[in-house]
Amino acid sequence: MKIKFCGIRRPEDVAYMNEFRPDYVGFVFAGTKRRVTPEKAAALARLLDAGIRKVGVFVDEPPENIARAVKLAGLNVVQLHGSETAQGIERLRTLLPEAEIWKAVRVKNSGSIPHAQRLGANMLLLDSFSVTEQGGTGKTADLNLIRKANLSSPFFLAGGLNSGNIGPIVREFSPYGVDVSSGIETGGVKDRRKIEQIMRILRKESGKAEG
């Protein structure tokens, strides 16, 4: 199971990532409290262990702007959190042929996941729905809707994951990966102790799955 920690914005955060080595880290380029500029992301990325893949989180950003940020910060993955279309994703593929494209799905109803599956992204990331925010809300995704979707293709699971709930959730849903942001924070700042707790739980669960 892959692990992604999102909302990296300080050199201290990068130091934690280098210590615990998740598979992916996310830089948020949308209007949230975790936002960084492409220039700041590039500076942080230079401090990051080369084996950790870098994800850029965007919301309804023009493809050309996304491509600029990807190239400046050396990102491996584009994660789209807005109302992007199949045409927009195809345009991104033209501009960024080497990058993976993930589409976040704010699971609102039974049609949310099937709609996103038709957009042509490499990976879906299933997240909680909020009227006012596009992600990183700390709210748990609607697990009943995800359960009913009965997905056969790999997916990432996000939305309110923390040390108190992540073990049972990954045991039930067996996601390809998990994406954690607020669950490794205290007071809006990345917390080493919480990162360590999550990593310990996920390594234990991965060991069970392999056994």
UniProtKB/TrEMBL annotation:
Pathway: Amino-acid biosynthesis; L-tryptophan biosynthesis; L-tryptophan from chorismate: step 3/5. Residues 4-199 form the N-(5'phosphoribosyl) anthranilate isomerase (PRAI) domain. Its EC number is 5.3.1.24. It is an enzyme of class 5 (isomerase). It comes from the Bacteria. Keywords: Amino-acid biosynthesis, Aromatic amino acid biosynthesis, Isomerase, Tryptophan biosynthesis. One of its GO terms (biological process) is L-tryptophan biosynthetic process. The keyword Isomerase applies. It catalyses: N-(5-phospho-beta-D-ribosyl)anthranilate = 1-(2-carboxyphenylamino)-1-deoxy-D-ribulose 5-phosphate. The keyword Isomerase applies. GO terms for molecular function: phosphoribosylanthranilate isomerase activity. Belongs to the TrpF family. This is N-(5'-phosphoribosyl)anthranilate isomerase. The gene is trpF.
